[in-house]
Task: structure prediction
Amino acid sequence: MKAALDTNIMAYAEGVGDKTRCQAARNLTQLLPATNVVIPDQTLGELYRVLTGKAGRSREDAREAILSWSTAFSVVDSTWESFQAAFDLTVDHSLQIWDALILSVAAANHCHLLISEDFQSGFTWRGVTVLDPFLEPSGNLLTDLLEES
Result:
């Protein structure tokens, strides 16, 4: 089963946020099977912005963090088709364009899960189910994914 990571999970794993979520995100990302997880390129741009803005890290440090994520998991590109689907999501489901793009890229890359706290957990679109890993219970799909590692 394939999954995609959203920016907020990586930001927490980088230590941006409350201690409980940061530790949970670190634990989760260490357990994820790298061969089954993708990172939409949009999320790395957002993560860079969070690390240099909110977290106050240097550009060099943020770059190293981004490169580390891109080494740990496959990075997948946004395509024009993904943007078109994202525009539909903004109209049909009132999503913000950048969140919609992340979801549409996950769908285009045949993911079953988008691990994020920025959407309604359980929302499903084109075969991708959004899962908030900080809610209890986290769901059978996440358990299934972790068992693949």
